[in-house]
Specification:
By secondary structure, this protein is α/β, with parallel strands linked by helices. The protein contains 5 helices and 12 strands. Helix 2 links the parallel strand 7 and strand 8. The chain is globular.
Length: about 230
């Protein structure tokens, strides 16, 4: 299936938000949290890479949030794309999706691991869902808080949504939370054990959070995760 780049914008140093359209279909069906695999022939070699969809379902359009890997094979080519350029994409796939519609949830994300979480939150909060949701989003520097304004607006609009950004390398001017996401997990959870926890980011963080949750008494079915290498 072909995907055409519609627009792009820089949202942090070496991080871009891409919007694609799949002109062969009227509706691109996917469950928020899923990914697509992009394929292109580079240097005579066909390369395929999976990327989480960073938007809620919207006709035949989908967004991706990509970090430039300067010495990589694929992202430098993607970052050279301009509106109107085409790329081959798979149908959406993946199991990092909302499991229990009736449960409150906490989302833990770092870096571009925010992409599938943004998709889920856009879909959930867009329906004025009454469940209580918390996003703990960790990055090193303040400029790396991807989609910050959007999440702040959602938190202001929806009393059932809490946005907790945290910085591991804050400047003196930062007055918010500091440290890694693991530091704030117990506070977000409190005494409750009837929550679902969604985790997305680098493997070390995901594994650490899973270990912490299991020690707190959470069942593995309540811990939904996706790792990035």
């Amino acid at each position: 299936m072909k995907a055409v780049l519609i627009e792009l914008r820089e949202i942090a140093p070496n991080v871009r938000h891409f919007v694609f359209e799949a002109p062969e279909v009227r509706e691109l069906y996917f469950v928020p949290g899923q990914f697509v695999s992009l394929t292109h022939n580079i240097g005579g070699k066909e390369i395929t890479r999976p990327y989480s969809i960073a938007s809620a379902p919207d006709g035949n359009r989908f967004a991706l949030c990509l970090n430039l890997v300067a010495d990589g094979l694929f992202t430098p080519w993607l970052f050279a794309l301009q509106p109107g350029d085409e790329i081959e994409t798979s149908a959406p796939l993946g199991y990092f999706v909302l499991r229990n519609p009736e449960r409150d949830a906490i989302f833990v994300a770092t870096g571009t691991g925010i992409a599938p979480v943004r998709s889920m939150l856009e879909a959930w909060l867009g329906q004025d869902d009454p469940r209580k949701l918390t996003l703990i989003f960790g990055v090193r520097h303040e400029h790396g808080l991807l989609y910050r304004e959007e999440f702040e607006e959602l938190a202001a609009k929806h009393s059932n949504f809490r946005f907790w950004p945290t910085l591991s390398r804050p400047t003196e001017s930062w007055t918010g939370r500091t440290g890694h996401v693991q530091k704030h997990l117990a506070e977000a959870i409190g005494e409750r054990r009837d929550l679902d926890i969604y985790i997305c980011g680098l493997a070390a963080m995901v594994d650490d959070v899973r270990t912490q949750l299991k020690a707190m008494g959470f069942d593995r079915k309540q811990i939904i995760y996706e790792k990035y290498d």
